[in-house]
Amino acid sequence: GINAEYGGYCMADYSKDQPPAYTQGGKPLVAYSPGGYPQQAYPVQVYPAQTVIVQNPPPATNALLAWISCLFCWPIAIVAVIKANEADKYIGQGDLERARSTGLVAKKWAIAAFITGTVIAVLAGIIVGILYLIAFLFDSVKSIQLIDPS
Fold this sequence. Notes:
mainly alpha, 3 helices, 51% helix, two-stranded antiparallel sheet, elongated
């Protein structure tokens, strides 16, 4: 029939057509409170006191500096590379003081290789420049003598 309360149309009652409540394992669902899931009580964890070990970084071996110095003067730089490897060996043995001193020796040898290589390159450039200048002047003098004065 027509129901005046709902604008003249009849509303169907679907509440009797609903399926039964969902159950899992034969048990009905638990309705939780609006606050969420029930809180579980976990046992308090007790951890042993931690020991903090402060470890300083190992000293520099200057190995990279030693290897790069091989490009400048390899005979001197070989000593730097050997000293850098010795410093690395001492770090592995735990002898940090000896590693520090050997790393500084490697650095000194590498710097010596840089300086020596740079000085040799500058001197070689000066010598080559002088030789080119002499050759140019010799060619100029030779060409002047070839001209017949008559």
